[in-house]
Amino acid sequence: MKVCVVGLGQIGFPVAQYANQKGLEVWGIDINPATVERVGKTEKFKATTQWKDIPHVDAYIICVTTGQVKDCPDVSAVFSVCQKISETAKPSTLVAIESTIIPGTTKKLFNETFKGKIRLVHCPHRYWADYPVDHGVNQLRVIGGVNPDSLKAGVKFYKATLGIPIHVCSSVEVAEMCKITENSHRYLQIAFAEELKMMCSKIGMSFDELRAAMNTKWNVDLPEAREGVGRHCLPKDIRYVMSLSPNDTELLASATLVDKKYREWLTKQKK
Question: The whole model's pTM is what?
Answer without folding.
Answer: 0.94
